[in-house]
Amino acid sequence: MWHPADVANSPSGDSVTDRIVRVLETFTPTRTVQTASEVGRRAGLPSSTAHRVVSDLVSAGLLDRDGEGRLSVGLRLWELATRSSHALRVRQAAMPAMERVQARVREHTQLAILEQDEALFLERLSDPDAGANITRIAGRLPLHATSSGLVLLAFADSDVQERVLARPLRRLTSATPTDPATVRRKLAEVRSLGHAIAPGYIEEVSTGVAVPVRDRISGATAALSVVLPREAPTALALEELHRAAREVEAALAGDS
Question: 106: domain CATH number?
Answer without folding.
Answer: 3.30.450.40
